[in-house]
Predict the structure.
Amino acid sequence: MSVRACTYPWHWLLITHSGDCLPCSHGAGSVGNVREQSLEEIWNGPRIREIRSAILAGEVHPLCRTTECPFQHHHPAFPRPKRPPHVDEAFARAFDEEDYLASHPDVRLAVLRGELGSGLEHFIRHGCADGYGYRLRSHVIRRDTPLANPVQAMLDYSERRVTLRAVPAVVVLAVTTVCNLRCVMCPQGMGLVTQPTHMPADIVEHAAAWLRTTSRLLLSGVGEPMLAPAFWRALELTRGRTDLWSRVNTNGLLLTPERTAAVLDSGLSEISFSLDAATPGTYARIRGARLDDVLVHIAAFSAARRRSGNRRLDVSVNMTLMLENIGEAPALVDLAHKLGLDSVLFSQLHNFGDRPDWVVTRDSWRFTYAEQRLTLAPDLARHHLDEACARARAHGLRVDFHGNVQTYLTKSQLSAPSVQGLPSTF
């Protein structure tokens, strides 16, 4: 595995609650702070240019030395990159977008949802290495016609540029480290967040220009986004942007009619409710709260969405798969159908190679992170995930997989139209 396949510093920027800018979400150090420099200065500043140069040389920059990096250490939650993406401008301008989307329904669905900007972006980043067929047109796009920013980012990478013409295609705002839950697989559950705080409002304002131009926005954090004023301010700044794909995960326990109305009136593209269980006992063990409490809120949110006529917002429930809850994956699909949602998202535990002591005790239950990974029981995971996909197909629900979960599926289930098995676009 080579760091040469990493393209994060060409298309991705994470802004932490303190204003630090990170070139990825896998443990890299800061390349600048928005309170000290402009985003433009950071994006093409000396630190990130050094990282880009090191990657192009196949070397690990000191800021990138971390056990969490999937390009330095193999993690089952991340696919092994087959080869670095490569494209030249002539190819990009001749690429037959319509034919590619017609030939690959999985890509077309991702583009329609806004999770990918175009079929060309998918082909450069994933499709070429995965053997997706394509066609070139005889009539090419004129050279004076600007290419989409995500494609320009990959051109910058292919041309070995360290000073980029593209701006970040993906911006991540880590809006808070404050949470109302202590889930066992989260740093909150391990007590690793010692000084929880919200992102100050001025940091959101520093990022405002790029929030208005980025292609994809993730509102996240090691905490509950709906607690953070920065989350609601970001929704205000991006309101009305139909060209933006934006997403948030929430535990749903803080929803009120007023907050529901604010979300439905925003430009948010996806909201996913983190359940990690389909039964009260498992929910209480993993998340430390009452399942019935959150289900009331999700049901009310779903009903309000139907009344509002908001067809753009995709609503899902998600489960971080582990041996403790894998048996409830099919029941989670049934629950999503009962709630009137659009989809179910499955991800899996990452490898935390630097935390072999990750152990959380809740009442009489002991959670040991290293003993809960699906790699320890792949046949069991395959059995339950195949059943979950079959139920989703029966209900007409979409199933999304993040974190390489699709590797546990049989080929027949993976090829089902309701299964979205694309690699993570981030």
Notes: The longest helix spans residues 291-308. The two ends are 19 Å apart (CA to CA).
